[in-house]
Amino acid sequence: DRISDGLSRSRDKFKESMNVLLDRGPDLDEEFWEGLEETLILSDVGGAAAADIVERLRDQATRRALPDAYAVLDLLNDEIAATFTAGGEDILGGQPAVVLFVGINGTGKTTTVGKLAKAATDAGRNVILGSADTFRAAAIEQLEVWARRSGVEMVTRERGADPASVCYDTLERAEAEGADLVLIDTAGRLHTSADLMRELQKVVNVVRKRSKLPVHTVLVIDATTGQNGLQQAREFNRALDLDALIVTKLDGTAKGGIAAAVSHELQLPIVKIGVGEGIDDLRDFNAHEFAAALVG
Ligand code: GDP
């Protein structure tokens, strides 16, 4: 399947290090536990999540008197799945909502909004798009292409306009049209990162104040950027108090474990994953499926 295919590079990398580790025998000695933790860290699941996983596995090995490394590895999928923060089903699960998408330029925000608009429209929902990236004319044009493709209305203003006003207009339009899903694309780059965070805070505040529908803030991160993605996520979460994550570009990266690191550290659920550039390449996230695809 697509998730398994998409994570094949991450999985190959993990299996390669695991094989090296098991070459020295299946004993559950200190060297094995350290090697396992290191292998998880190399797979980008992050230091905190890796330590947690190994601690829980050690605990089970003792309690259940597991005979060897193979018995431990049988439990690895479940433990990796458990490091993801659960929840977020209400965000893009079919309930009426306003969803604000934030993230650095190039992470796949606009593409993701486009894919979601198409999928939701196909599912019979009444969708409206807002393009609040007034800093970059190309961003508005790009979203317009997606809007046309799925026959969805898009609200925006001229380049340089106040993004909060675009959001305000979008919500008014959504109310007039009886839309039940409002997807708003925001800027991913301004003159400085502090400017960007200030602008996004203003946008989030205006939308929260004005919207009659529940408002969710979703960060889009690019898995290929590995630990940089985690850095960005921390900064956005500090400034905006995020509700969920979407991790894109899981195809063609060996850094897929970053999804676990971010979800674990920031205590945020992953609501969708991107596994390609095509319109169908946005998938529901399932922790067990993901863990299985990551480590095989
Ligand atoms: P934005 O600047 O955050 O709005 O990013 P864009 O939506 O413009 O996407 C940047 C590039 O990433 C485009 O070329 C997209 O086609 C590509 N992209 C987005 N999501 C994915 C994905 O899941 N996999 C792959 N391989 N490419 C993606």
From TrEMBL:
Portion held of the full protein: 5 to 300 of 440
EC number: 3.6.5.4
Keywords: Cell membrane, Cytoplasm, GTP-binding, Hydrolase, Membrane, Nucleotide-binding, Receptor
Keyword Zinc-finger applies: no
UniProt topology in membrane: Peripheral membrane protein
Residues that bind GTP: 103-110, 185-189, 248-251
Domain SRP54-type proteins GTP-binding: residue ranges: 96-296
Span of domain AAA+ ATPase: 95-250
Recorded name of the encoding gene: ftsY
Organism: Adlercreutzia wanghongyangiae
Domain of life: Bacteria
Family: Belongs to the GTP-binding SRP family. FtsY subfamily.
Free-text function comment from the UniProt entry: Involved in targeting and insertion of nascent membrane proteins into the cytoplasmic membrane. Acts as a receptor for the complex formed by the signal recognition particle (SRP) and the ribosome-nascent chain (RNC).
Record-annotated Signal recognition particle SRP54 helical bundle domain positions: 3-84
Listed name of the protein: Signal recognition particle receptor FtsY
Protein location: Cell membrane; Cytoplasm
